[in-house]
Every structure is written in structure tokens, then in C-alpha cells.
Amino acid sequence: MEKIIYALWRKHGESRETFNQRLKDETAPGLLDLPNVHGLRINLQDDAVARAEPLRQHGTDPQMDAALQVWVDVSHDEFRKPLDEMLAAATGRIAAWVVLESCVIPNTLHPSQPGGRTYGWSQFCFIKRPDRFSFDQWRYNWQVLHTPVAIETQSNFEYVQNLVVRPLIEGPHPYAAIVEECFPTEAMDDPQTFFDAAGDEAKFQRNAQEMADSCARFVEMPGGIDVLPTSQYDFRKLA
After folding, report:
1. pLDDT averaged over the chain?
2. Domain count along the chain
């Protein structure tokens, strides 16, 4: 079993609403009919996450409009071809990576329903590796040093780290990691809730600073990360 993450861009001049509707109503059912597809999740930028817009960060222009995660038997080009063709027809541009998934915090608090929008919102991040770090040092800083900080200082109820193994379809940058974190709805525009410190200003300041310091160990700022506020839709979960 392999996991592929696609970045998707809208067709030129197309509205986000039309793009999102096509992915949900046409593309998702088509992908689920393919025998190679065992799991499917789509992360869309829609009106439900408009409140989180100030949390967006830009590392590429134009920024991707959606992310699609799919679990398949084989990601080789010939086996993946039907997926690529279906996604290319529905979008203006696609990029794809095969990744190694680590589910640090599984979503047990707010389980998703097939085809429905998951509670809260998902912060979806594409991360470059700073040139100043070797791969081994960068991975250590991220997965060994940063992981407990991300757990302890935020209100995330799902936390998935995806280590990029290799690009399948070249994207705008050689991303090294792709991360998804789900947060309560209030965390879109309440920083204290985001940093798991509702009503506690001292804890908020402490957690926010600790998180910023930890991120600096593996993310180049500015420009080293794309952060997208998204709505998560699980169309088929792995058993």
C-alpha cells in the first residue's frame, strides 16, 4: 500500500466554488470506482474556512487550490495513469508525491463521515527543507524535536506527518514534507484556542513562542512553507 498526495490548481478563470463542487460531485466518485483506490480524502478551500484566511502562508505563486490524498496498491506511472488523467481533466494543473505517512494523532474525537465535511478545519502544509540542513538533521529537527512540541502546544485533534519519498509529477518546489493538522472551529480566529490556552494569556504566550521557536528548526521563513486553511472531506477511509 502506498499513499499519494496531489496538489491541485483550478482551471484559469474558474471560481473556487465551481472547482470544489466538481471535485466532490464528479472527481471523487470517479476515483472511487478505480480498483487501485483504497482510500480517498480531499482538502478544499471553501467558505467554511474563510475565518482562517489570516493564517494562510505563501511559499509558491500561484498557490495550490486543493489537496487530494489517495491510498493505492501501486503508485508506479502506469498504475497511476487513470488517476492522473482524471485529475488532469478536472483541474488546470496537478503535482503529486508519494509519501510515508505517520499518523501522530489519529482523529478519535471527531470521526469523519463518508463524503461529509469533518468537524473543525484542517491546516494543510507543504514544507521545503532549508538548504542549511542535511536531510538527516532536518528530519531529526522535525520528527524528533518538533513532534512533541506540536502535540503539547496546540489544540490539534488530528496530526498527520507525510515525509516525501519522491515526486511523481513535478510540483512548484521540491517539498520535503506535507503535514495535515485538524483543529476546532474556534481555532480559526481565536489564537488562544489554537494554542490550547483558552482563557490563559500566559499559557498562550508560552505555547505560541515555543511553537515558533520549534518551527524555526526545520522551516525556512519566509517562503519555506505553504499553509492552506481547508475543509477536510473523507470519501473512503482505510479499514
Report:
1. 97
2. 1
